[in-house]
Amino acid sequence: MANVTNKQKKLFDAGSPGFLYTVTVSVLAMFAWSGVEFPAKPAEIAGEITTLLSTSGFYAIIGVIVASVAFPIWNAYKKKALTFDGIFKSTLTWISLGNILFAGLALTGFLLPEGTVEQIVYAVEAKDWATIISMLVTTIIPAVVRFIKDKKQTT
Q1: Helices vs. strands in the chain: H and E counts, helices first
Q2: Helix, strand, coil percentages for the chain (3-state, nearest 5)
Q3: What pLDDT is attached to residue 155?
Q4: Domain parsing of the chain, residue ranges
Q5: What does the alpha-carbon distance between residue 84 and residue 16 come to, in Å, rounded to a whole number?
Q6: Which of 36, 70, 97, 129 lies at 20 to 30 Å from 77 by C-alpha?
Q7: Residues 56, 100: Cα–Cα separation, whole Å
């Protein structure tokens, strides 16, 4: 009897706790870098929100979001400490957005080595095209090829 392996396809799940945590901490970190002063570190607030989402504490989620996220953002906005330009001028914001993108892609099985997003953002900011081409050839293209091969083997 042949040993048959039945691999199940991973489908994107926006409700995945890891994905929700990554998105939440990245968004909160963008605000923190732009001048918003939260009562706790963005990672702690994101962990609390993710935990509450998994335990379905609706009123608790609203309380945490209002007290720990909405009020600090509103206060920073009123003090003129928070601007749209302030958020998107930061290199760290672009790293957070890249992390959100690649966290979503990771749910489909596509993975890049840790730190790749940061290296890409810094290279683009420095206009270091040699580094970008090098990363494309040595890191990104092999990851895409590996992802495609793995997908073909599971179908």
Answers
A1: 9, 0
A2: 70, 0, 30
A3: 65
A4: 14-108, 112-155
A5: 29
A6: 97
A7: 23
